[in-house]
């Protein structure tokens, strides 16, 4: 690969074995045409999309048994898209999204590497409305609350892109930014629950990983105050 190096990993995700191409280390950077810079992705942040993170594995494993029947699903900040690959194997109606310039080609490569049809992908900047994306029954993401201002931004995105009856599942390693996110979703009529899950093979109860599950019924949808596009 020009400008960066990759490796292949074998991972157990959602009850199946996968081969995943990822960046070979955390010191990668390649932005020859300046696309990442224009999107506000710094050289220090550039490589983050291409790593296998514990929270991503936790989400992928959760998607191996999650109820997906009849649901249109959006993965936000997908990175390598581990959860979307698991959902694709299960025949789910899933769209993966990210803003990194290389997220889509890495996801397509990993789909082919595992003999799966390419996962549908949309470039999505959380703070920029994208009306053509439509509405979803389930929104998922892993470690997407890593900065304080992401809570309100993601809550607004969910308000724009969910049906009246909807679910949100976020895996969080405990960065401390989930409380404002939960409060913002509560204003939209979502009820929250939490489970614990292993962050890696050595994690033992009580597990470090948090699965934040939000549910809203159609009758709980606020009649005003939520922007939906």
From TrEMBL:
Biological process, per Gene Ontology: methylation
Gene Ontology terms, MF aspect: methyltransferase activity
InterPro entries: Methyltransf_16 (IPR019410), SAM-dependent_MTases_sf (IPR029063)
Keywords: Methyltransferase, Transferase
SUPFAM superfamilies for this protein: S-adenosyl-L-methionine-dependent methyltransferases
Any matching Pfam family: Methyltransf_16
Coiled coil: none
Origin superkingdom: Bacteria
Name recorded for this polypeptide: Methyltransferase type 12
Native species: Lysobacter concretionis Ko07 = DSM 16239
Lineage: Bacteria, Pseudomonadati, Pseudomonadota, Gammaproteobacteria, Lysobacterales
